[in-house]
Design a protein that fits this description.
The protein is an alpha+beta fold. It is 27% helix and 26% strand. It contains 13 helices and 23 strands. The protein is globular and about 70 Å long.
């Protein structure tokens, strides 16, 4: 590691600096966060889960070297997440029906936490970078999250649409990644003081834009996985200079696993928190901010559309024949049929990759279901093929091969241990495989 970085860490940590150096000699422990939106019984994961993470009953340390290769991961039952990365979302209470913005959402671990906690809310998961946005979409589909909207916009673009709108905003900002050095040699190689300052400038912009989108008395969590004060306390200090924010005390359950922020910036910074690898997990910083009471401003035009009578005649009888029930509302957004877990909803015109759940589309007079719909609502299909994890047909399906099985003709869903895996279309005992090509395993 560069001497300049180590010198700065010694100043920050003081008597804890030797503990930090010693912690770098150990490999980080792997952990997972359970997907409580779909997981029916965590006892099915007993072979994977080893030790409950002390501040979250839904997160566990594991020993599995490659948990992402397991079928339980493919089914969306958990998300592999570093323990201290779970802290920011848990730092303050979130209402179950909150309107939430996850401003820098990819790859989606914190989006999962937010969706699980705000089951009756709406999560706008934003990612401007195209490749990272694709990763975010893939994870949201795999996890079967029904209440998410994935946007691909800059904070400036979002700010122009949303003024004083969100109950809660998470700004898990891009950073210099100092907190990941133990597990990421590339982060060490890329580190420089100029990069730290470059990141700090971006972070200040993101945080100020986010404050504009926060409603009166709404809460905002700012977090990074780095140690530099330029990217942490100084960014928070810059936001506080706006004059309409104050720092809240964090969730007490996180205090034993973090240290106070740097008090050189003022006594209020004792409520900002720093995580280190000699405490639990890797490097983490977070601060809970609340907006002062103010008059709300700004409205937007709702882009959600009702189905036309012609579309209802085409779609509704087909869905009624295919599904056991329809416990969701059906709307159109940017000409896509979407399933929404609310009776009414308002969404402005945005650059989106996902708006709730894509049902499918008509092609040449036939309706083709979308994979996301199967992952979210697959248990509703009348035509289901239920298999155990050990059944060799599961591996065959995941590789994209056609299956042979006597099931009713038409669209159906393959279930594994009761969880939707993907779509098939049956015809005379042959099941055409509709598992997405990009997800297939050889």
């Amino acid at each position: 590691m560069q001497e300049e970085f180590l010198n700065e860490m010694e100043v920050i940590l003081q008597e804890d600096f030797p503990k930090y150096l010693e912690s770098l000699q150990h490999l980080p422990r792997k952990a997972v966060r359970l997907n409580t939106s779909i997981l029916q019984d965590k006892s099915s994961l007993n072979g994977l889960l080893k030790e409950e993470i002390p501040f979250d009953k839904n997160s566990y340390f594991i020993e599995e070297e490659k948990p992402g290769n397991t079928l339980s991961h493919t089914l969306g039952l958990f998300y592999v997440q570093e323990p201290s990365a779970m802290m920011p979302v848990l730092a303050t209470e979130i209402a179950k029906d909150a309107k939430i913005l996850d401003l820098c959402a990819s790859p989606g671990g914190k989006t999962l936490q937010l969706s699980n906690l705000a089951k009756d809310g709406i999560i706008y998961a934003n990612e401007f970078n195209p490749s990272r946005a694709r990763k975010l979409v893939s994870n949201i589909e795999r996890l079967g999250l029904k209440n998410c909207i994935v946007t691909q916009m800059t904070s400036k673009e979002l700010k122009q649409v949303f003024q004083g709108y969100f109950d809660y905003i998470l700004v898990d900002a891009p950073c210099s990644l100092e907190g990941t050095f133990r597990k990421d040699p590339l982060a060490i190689e890329l580190w420089s003081k100029s990069r730290v300052l470059e990141m700090a400038s971006l972070q200040k912009t993101l945080l100020k834009d986010a404050v504009c989108m926060l409603k009166s008395e709404g809460k905002l969590v700012y977090s990074t996985c780095t140690f530099s004060k330029e990217e942490n306390e100084e960014v928070v200090k810059d936001a506080l200079s706006l004059g309409n924010l104050h720092v809240l005390a964090p969730n007490p359950s996180l205090l034993p696993f973090t240290k106070e922020g740097l008090l050189e910036y003022g006594n209020t910074f004792k409520n900002t928190r720093r995580g280190y690898p000699f405490l639990l997990g890797e490097g983490q910083f977070f601060a809970v901010l609340q907006k002062e009471k103010e008059k709300l401003t700004g409205t937007f035009q709702n882009a959600i559309e009702e189905l036309s009578k012609e579309e209802e005649k085409m779609l509704m009888p087909f869905l009624s024949e295919t599904l056991q029930e329809i416990p969701f509302s059906i709307f159109k957004y940017h000409n896509q049929f979407i399933a929404v877990p609310f009776k009414t909803v308002e969404v402005p015109h945005l650059k989106t990759a996902i708006c709730f759940v894509k049902i499918g589309e008509f092609q040449k007079g036939r309706f083709l279901f979308h994979h996301q719909f199967a992952r979210c609502y697959g248990t509703l299909f009348k035509n289901k093929l239920s298999l155990s994890k050990e059944d060799p047909l599961v591996k065959k399906y995941l590789s994209g091969l056609e299956l042979e099985m006597e099931v009713p003709d038409g669209w159906g869903v393959l279930l594994v241990e009761g969880y939707p895996l993907g779509l098939f279309k049956a015809s005379h005992g042959k099941l055409k495989n509709h598992y997405p090509k990009g997800l297939r395993k050889s």
